[in-house]
# Entry
Amino acid sequence: MLTGLLHAHSTLRWVVLALMIIAGLKSLIGWMNKSPYEKIDDKLSLFTLIATHTQLLIGFGLYFMSPKVDFSNIADGVTRYFTIEHAFLMILVAVLITIGRSTSKKKEEAADKHKTVALFYLSSLAIVVLTVFVMMP
Ligand code: HEM
Ligand code: HEM
# Structure
């Protein structure tokens, strides 16, 4: 069970990363160029949210099973990273993506929709890159 979840979680990181880059950059360009907010923009934002929520759910599963989550061994760098930093920052990312999508859905103007997705999704991308590709021991 742990191995399966770990494989899924480890592979899904690339999907999350790719979708955040595509959805975030496409909306950044759309915002700058004053492009219409099209169906594909909505789909990209939705798929990014689904991938992130799935990663969150698997992450919660891992949190209860992984030997790297242990509050009594917080002095160990790897344990502290997964018990505190990884969990806290990745939950923050899921919250930012969810707020970004629901806020963008409520906006009327295409430019405002693009701007909201660009800001929330690219900030989330920056946190993922830092947490998973820079900080991860
Ligand atoms: C720990 C697990 C999860 C939590 C806490 C969570 C939380 C949420 C919240 C708070 C929203 C509301 C967003 C809004 O108000 O617009 C939402 C929406 C949604 N979630 Fe999750 N979710 C979880 C897991 C999942 C999973 C596993 C999937 C799919 C495989 C998923 C797919 C979706 C979809 C499709 C929406 C609606 C997005 C939209 O149409 O704007 N979620 N989730
Ligand atoms: C966008 C969200 C996330 C991404 C991109 C992500 C990415 C990763 C990656 C790349 C690993 C290393 C996998 C490996 O060693 O092969 C990992 C491990 C882990 N993640 Fe996440 N994660 C996310 C969210 C979460 C959340 C929300 C939690 C729990 C609250 C969580 C809990 C864990 C745990 C406990 C491990 C260590 C498992 C082990 O090696 O025993 N993750 N994550």
The chain has a mean pLDDT of 97.
